[in-house]
Amino acid sequence: MLDTNLTHVNSEEEFSKILNENENVMICCGRMGPMCVPVYGIMEELENEYTNVKFADMAFDSPHAHLIRNLPECRAFQGLPFTVYFKDGKVVKATSSIQSMDQIIEILDAEFTKVEA
Amino acid sequence: MRNYNFDVIIIGGGAAGLTAAIYLSRARVNTIVLNEGTAGGQMVLTHEIANYPGVENISGYKLAGTMKKQAVSFGTEIRSNIRVTGMKLDGEIKTVEVNDKEIYSANAVIIATGGKSRTLNVPGEEEFKGLGVSYCATCDGDFFRDKKVIVVGGGNSALEEAVSLTKYASEVTIVHQFDHFQAFEHAVKEAEENPKISFIMESRIAEFVGDEKLRKVRIENQSTKEITEKDVDGVFILIGYVPNTAKLRDLIDLNSAGEIITDANMRTNIEGVFAAGDSIQKRFRQITTAVSDGTIAALNAAEYIHYFKTQLQAV
Description:
The complex is a heterodimer. Chain A has four helices and five strands. By secondary structure, chain A is of the alpha/beta class. Chain A has a single domain, classed as Glutaredoxin, CATH 3.40.30. A five-stranded mixed sheet of chain A has the order 1-3-2-4-5, with helices on one face. In chain A, a hairpin with a 2-residue loop joins strand 4 and strand 5. In chain A, 43% of the residues are buried. By secondary structure, chain B is an alpha/beta fold. Chain B folds into two domains: 2-117 and 241-314, 3-Layer(bba) Sandwich (FAD/NAD(P)-binding domain), CATH 3.50.50; 133-237, 3-Layer(bba) Sandwich (FAD/NAD(P)-binding domain). A five-stranded parallel sheet of chain B has the order 4-3-2-8-19, covered by helices on one side. A five-stranded parallel sheet of chain B has the order 10-17-11-12-13, covered by helices on one side. Chain B is elongated, with a radius of gyration of 22 Å. The model of chain B has no long low-confidence stretch (mean pLDDT 94). Chains A and B meet through helix 2 of A and strand 10 and helix 3 of B.
């Protein structure tokens, strides 16, 4: 399990449950390394702002990580973390390696309609 | 614009900034940390810290989390992942504009903006990030089992990581801009003795080329300017760090490397503006030295604020 304050996806069942129960989902699949930790930090910051998005992480070395690693959208990926954005259970965007706050916000705003507080 | 007033603004939330925040808020100085990245800075990027006195072994992420918790428990406000969009550092009231919509003002500012990995800034680098271009061999090395990789750089990190990558890759080529290495002799020797490692000296990567992932690089010889192409699966860029001071260029004195010039009390050339940590001009960049800088900056900032308030009361 990753040492973050995000919701952890710990099994295939939890993965399905999160996708079934949430229209918009962002899952960051990584380790506790230099390229991954900043992305978790950004997700924790954005969690309160993007209430329409479910933010979660998944340990890259866990048995169920194949659900992310083997996605066709991640086929060419060679850098941690693999970050995947789902809408209605379908992949709408995926990125490899570290991303900045601005890059993540750009994707969230493009793919998911933000609910104004 | 929304306005907020504090005694001290700390720009940067790494080891130096958080230490300064702990000292200031514990002394009941109203303090905010404005941090463009994740709280903890470069510290959170370290897997294992075994030389921080008093702590046998801890991850950078955990140590940063504890420092942040300490600062908050004493009353510091922390805003992370913001963008500093403007600064006015001269005069009695200093202001920092955030995200183009908020203005923070204070009588003193501590700049602890740290550093970041240097990039090559050549065509294709950003496009193939995570698709063959990497800045962390420990993170991404195992994606390159039995593949050909290049390591760019000539310092200790580059040479040590090149050796480490031979555990996975079939072939490792070190590309370095000079005809000699800056790394320690033992690191150079270990790389030279490794049969999987070869060297292309006095050269630089001019372009990354590929389709859905990186396929090859164009390498320019620095002396002859001749360009050659090399098929490759991955390139690890390990060329050191640069201080995060680009936004300060016209505001305070920097040296030619872009580092902030301070005196022994962490004072910059502007009254009421202090600096600490990896962004200042110094030789050793460690968590312990950042903590020391942060402490000195905080104590001097507290004294400055006290002097300022006493003066106001006297008027």
